[in-house]
Amino acid sequence: MAHHLVTGGCGFIGRHLTAALLEAGHEVTVLDDLSSGDPATLPSAARLEEGCVTDANKLASLAEDMDGVFHLAAIASIAAAEANPERAHAVNAGGAANAVAAAARSHIPLVLISSAAVYGDAGPGAVSEDYPCLPLSSYGADKLQGEHYALKAADNGLSATIVRPFNVYGPGQDAGSPYAGVISRFIAAALSGTPLRVDGDGSQSRDFIFIDDLIRLLTACISRPRPGALIVNGCTGIATSVKALATEIGQLCGDNIRIEPGTGRSGGVAHSLGDPGQAAEMFGFRAQITLADGLRRTIDWQRGTNSQ
Ligand SMILES: NC(=O)c1ccc[n+]([C@@H]2O[C@H](COP(=O)([O-])OP(=O)(O)OC[C@H]3O[C@@H](n4cnc5c(N)ncnc54)[C@H](O)[C@@H]3O)[C@@H](O)[C@H]2O)c1
Which CATH homologous superfamily contains domain 3-168+208-236+277-283? Predict the structure, then answer.
């Protein structure tokens, strides 16, 4: 049994990860400033330390008693980061630097959650981890800088696994936030009888990975024993256009769901698709939940939330 530190453990991915680690018999301490996370959703067996990842001393002292660090805390959407770039830089790049330093000082492995946003617009093909990183957003640039700190520390003996999740979805994702992801927004619209609005021509595509699959990958990463760095995509290798996604959600949510053109341009990255080969080779990992199954589970959860 190990004791792990999970930064951002009150957020969507962090609380699923915390639950999985506890379920596996580990102890978990969560560091979260509750800026977007909800402590009520954290499993009660986890210990919550309220604080900010920009506090290097706090991170370092928490890491002293740990066997591993998962660093997830971030201003986690491109739009939210761009609304306040200075704060986002301090949290997303600075927080990563502090997590790297804390893990290195305590000689414990680090799993750093980066993002597929580091690739920028790589076109419609699947990107592997050695694809050149040309982020289009300050969020992606800050994530890339965080990776850089981990790579440097790994040269000096840190065991660092950098995970680049693509579009993660599933139960527990906040549909009410102005920065909600496309899946929770479409489901919320469908369940409330409002049209699903697809920006642009809807051909923009994403690699949607269900939360349980990503969590299996993250927990596998902490068990990687050797020093040095590894970068791994958290993806399915399957592209889905936003138009096809809207159609599928419409069909799963019932009759008479309308899909209408959105008022905005599609903007940002046109295509985002990961190559899952590295995760398969290093961890025997393959995403198992199909989009239809993952959407059904997410819709059931959002229906339950709406009726409360
Ligand atoms: N959700 C996705 O599709 C996705 C895709 C790629 C990468 N990621 C990355 O995964 C990680 C988790 O994302 P999420 O979707 O769970 O986001 P989230 O917003 O649900 O969770 C982030 C958590 O971090 C906490 N936090 C924010 N700033 C903090 C700070 N300064 N100090 C301490 N805690 C702080 C928040 O309160 C929240 O609990 C992030 O690093 C994000 O960039 C997410």
Answer: NAD(P)-binding Rossmann-like Domain (3.40.50.720)
Question: Same fold for the domain at 3-168+208-236+277-283 and the one at 171-205+239-272+289-306?
Answer: no
Cβ neighbours of residue 132 under 8 Å, at least 6 residues apart?
none
pLDDT tens column, 134-171: 999 999 999 999 999 999 999 999 999 999 999 999 99
For the stretch 213-234, pLDDT in tens is 999 999 999 987 678 999 999 9
Phi, psi values for residue 62, rounded to 5°: -65, -40
Q: Where are the domains of the chain?
A: 3-168+208-236+277-283, 171-205+239-272+289-306
Contact 99, 53 (CB under 8 A): yes
- Assess contact for 246 and 259: CB atoms under 8 A: yes
Q: Which burial class, exposed, middle or buried, applies to 277 when counting CB atoms under 10 A from its CB (0-12, 13-18, 19+)?
A: middle
Our answer on whether the CB atom of 115 is closer than 6 Å to any ligand 1 atom is: yes
Whether 169 is catalytic is no
Mutate to test the pocket of ligand 1, among 10, 13, 210 (most ligand atoms within 8 A of CB): 13
Residue 170 Cβ inside 6 Å of ligand 1? The answer reads no
Domain 171-205+239-272+289-306: what homologous superfamily?
A: UDP-galactose 4-epimerase, domain 1 (3.90.25.10)
> Would you state the structure tokens that stand for residue 116, as one six-digit string?
């597929």
pLDDT tier at 262, thresholds 50, 70, 90: confident
